[in-house]
Amino acid sequence: MRTCNQHTPPCRAPLFRGDFGQSWRWFWSPVRKRGGAQRRGVLGLYLVFLAFAPFASAQRIEISWPTPNPAWERGQSYEHWVQPTVSGEFTSGLFGSVRSNGSQFHEGLDIKPVSRDSRGEPRDEVTAAMDGVVRNISARAGESNYGRYIVIEHPGVSPAVYTLYAHLARIEPGLFEGMSVKRGQAIGTMGHSSGGYSIPTDRAHLHFEIGLRLTDNFASWYGWKKFGSPNQQGLFNGMNLMGTDPREFLDKWRAHRVDNFEQYFAALKPAVRLRVATSRVPDFITRYPALLRSPITGLLGGWEVQCDVTGLPFAWTPLSPTQVAGMKAGSVEIVSVDTAALHVFRGKSLIRSHGGRPSPGPDLTTMLQLVFGLR
Would you say 358 and 352 are in contact if contact means Cβ atoms under 8 Å apart? Predict the structure, then answer.
């Protein structure tokens, strides 16, 4: 389950060889042998490469802290800007397996206010962390654990991550879905709105996430699961969003250890490596081609995917039919597991053992269902 405050969510191999003309001939020769629909899909993915690959790995992005709290920008420790849970432990407001003695996962950062009114309500303005497009505004607090929240996608960076701003007291007037916003632009006011539980005023905060959206076919999966309640947030339901550690990225970016998200994802450590036998190109990797470790050549037989300790599929390698020989279409094979890393990170259940063989646990199964359409 995705959770928030006080409650129970080596460099990438080059895509191109030589100049543009050589790259095109190298790619197109095997692609033209495919069927029409598959050829168009792979060709579309290649054209996305052309748009992003030559530039993304070299450019330094511009990103800003989303609240007036100056502590992080001044290089102060997290105790100066984190809002802890009722436990009082500041680590409980960070990303990761940080709650309930490490068994509960928290998918973002909880940033405390620096200004309050006479009633103790926060007055901090919440601002967009990067240039982007508003994709979701959930203005009715009771419809989500996030309370009032906003999701912005950032097509100007690669991969085109989302940022999420939750528990807002107020949405900035005039903000609408599809609207372009600039880095530092006001989008709302910090608060303690929630759904199905209560966040006390003294623990008001901004829940801030950075991550990737799993599928464009979320409605089908949601209906198949029969949750018994309508999906009020469309594609930007929290179950379709998978965060990465904002603090880790921001700290590395500030220290010039990474310049952008492509470099950050390329340096993540795999906790699980798996293979999926399928000739499909999931819309996830079409939207995030920067996560490819090698280009698609020849017939596609499947994928080898590296997942971090949260189950985020951050590195993708296409496989030929020969490389998945013996696997049933739609089947999943666990290639390797970092048992020590998963033991430390207990907030997600990625792997189970059946007869001494590893198999996907509940959280990894959900990711595979959403990303690959597995049922």
Answer: yes
Is there a domain that residue 27 lies in? yes
- For the record, the structure tokens of 282 come out as 């999931």
Residue 116 · residue 122 · CB < 8 Å: yes
* Pick from 115, 99, 97, 91: nearest CA to 6: 99
Cβ-contact 138, 148 below 8 angstroms: yes
274 lies in the same domain as 224: no
The 10 Å Cβ neighbour count of residue 252 is: 16
Q: What is the pLDDT of residues 78-128, one digit of tens each?
A: 999 999 999 999 999 999 999 999 999 999 999 999 999 999 999 999 999
Q: How far apart are CA 323 and CA 205, in angstroms?
A: 49
CA triple 83-103-101, angle to 5 deg: 65
End-to-end CA distance of the chain: 20
Backbone Cα Rg of the chain: 21
Strand bridging mode 302-307 / 313-319: antiparallel
In a domain, 262, yes or no: no
Split into its structural domains, the chain has a count of: 2
The answer to whether the bond into 159 is cis (omega within 30° of 0) is yes
Q: What is the pTM of this model?
A: 0.85
